[in-house]
Sequence to fold (460 residues):
Amino acid sequence: MRVRDDGSSMMTGEYDFDLFTIGAGSGGVRASRVAAAHGAKVAVAEEYRVGGTCVIRGCVPKKMLVYGAHFAEDLEDAQAFGWTIQGKSFDWIKLRDNVQQDVTRLEGLYGQTLSNHNVTIFNERATITGDHQITLASGKVVTAKHILVATGARPAIPDFPGNEHVITSNEAFHLDAIPRRILIAGGGYIANEFAGIFNEFGSKVTIANRSDTILRSYDAALRDRLLQISMVKGIEFCFHAEFEQVEKQDDGTLLVKLTGQDPREFDVVMVATGRVPNVEGLGLETIGVEVGSKGEIIVDAFSKTNVDYVYAVGDVTDRVQLTPVAIREGQAFADSVFGGVEPYAVDHSCVPSAVFSHPPIAAVGMTESEARNQLGNIKVFQSDFRPMKNVVAGRNERSLYKMIVDAANDRIVGIHMIGPDAPEIMQAAAIAVKAGLTKADFDATVAIHPTMAEELVLFK
Ligand SMILES: Cc1cc2nc3c(=O)[nH]c(=O)nc-3n(C[C@H](O)[C@H](O)[C@H](O)COP(=O)(O)OP(=O)(O)OC[C@H]3O[C@@H](n4cnc5c(N)ncnc54)[C@H](O)[C@@H]3O)c2cc1C
Ligand SMILES: NC(=O)c1ccc[n+]([C@@H]2O[C@H](COP(=O)([O-])OP(=O)(O)OC[C@H]3O[C@@H](n4cnc5c(N)ncnc54)[C@H](O)[C@@H]3O)[C@@H](O)[C@H]2O)c1
Fold:
């Protein structure tokens, strides 16, 4: 018999749960549900809202705003197609509240899925307080044979005087009004997606990035195309710009001093300068779980930490910060530990991704420069075209598709697209790249005409 700190006792080798998951986001929910389906007794703790970043303040509400924003262009373009639209106006509060209503609906569904699988949900913060031991914010102490850390990440806020006046993507979903002038710091996914959203809603948008490169992991030609289109749409870019100071003025506006620039006024300043793993105060040091320089939990290919019974998945491990990846890691963990199968690892190569900018970008595999560096001899096919809809609409906005082929064996090693519906088209194309198909396989496929996607099988 072993006596715990709180005075209760348990038999050695017996635990309250087979699995205790900390964090009910993309990775944690999938792992908990699947482990329970495999017969494990599972509990999950969530300190905020079940669903995590993606459902509550990430991919899902963001995509709804992207849809809402794009109507600005569609309504304008509709006129060239013969439509007269009178009295058009935009009601932010209506969109904001409709989006939040759907987020709440989804939160309920995620909770239901867990309950239907008999997963115990603790709606409170959890901390690791000893070997196999978790303490909840209420003071309740539980034990578990396995612990899964799936606590995600949060926005990194740069250190500068006045940084208490900035917002992050978390708050952007709840604004009381669309700002007249917004400064967005960062040049990555979130900065470019929200720049597009606010710009379509009529804000004057300025992006300030510390380097001169936006979306650095994407192919240079697509990055340049997005930059050029964004500028034509009215988004302003300040490069090599970092915050020196943000000062709140008497009228509530923010006076911002960026490096190399004169001070300027904005109504809202939003930072989108990356995300940091949520490990503070989690008690990892209590049991000796190893973390890296950014606080990310170090795991092996099977998402196992250096402590035998502790695993970690998703953004807290800072591998690939995308929802489908967190979900796969959660699934692989649950199958491997509770499913009675040979442990298997998630393949982090060739992960397709998208930026929901206006227009969106989508990519899979190597960029042209990565392929040149790694393979040497490559072939690059490119289609630079104006989508039919844009021609009729008089919208001078061109799409760009690129295919990168290994010259040694004709295998497609990368596809990159910017243009309407690029992420929708890419999902299918990514299967072909992942499967190792060749340019000849694409050429052998008959086009669907007239589409934008047909460019993929018509590269010359
Ligand atoms: C604005 C934005 C847009 C995005 N858009 C996309 C997109 O379009 N496509 C895409 O694939 N990805 C997107 N992402 C990334 C995606 O949201 C994340 O990669 C994904 O949510 C990671 O899942 P996770 O399970 O690791 O963590 P999360 O989903 O963040 O879940 C972690 C959960 O743990 C909880 N938690 C933390 N600490 C504790 C504790 N001690 N006790 C209890 N609970 C705790 C948190 O409250 C949170 O709910 C976006 C992210 C943001 C911020
Ligand atoms: N569509 C999607 O799949 C999607 C959408 C949003 C977020 N996400 C995920 O969330 C993660 C975080 O997104 P993010 O946009 O915050 O990060 P990011 O890593 O994509 O971009 C961060 C940007 O901030 C810049 N930066 C860093 N410090 C700065 C400073 N002090 N001043 C000015 N600029 C600075 C960097 O140069 C970089 O351009 C992404 O890496 C991505 O994995 C994915």
In short: The first strand starts at residue 2 and ends at 3. The pocket of flavin-adenine dinucleotide (ligand 1) is lined by residues 22-28, 45-48, 52-54, 58-59, 62, 125-126, 150-152, 169, 190, 278, 282, 314-316, 321-324, 326 (CB under 6 Å). The longest helix spans residues 92-116. The radius of gyration is 24 Å.
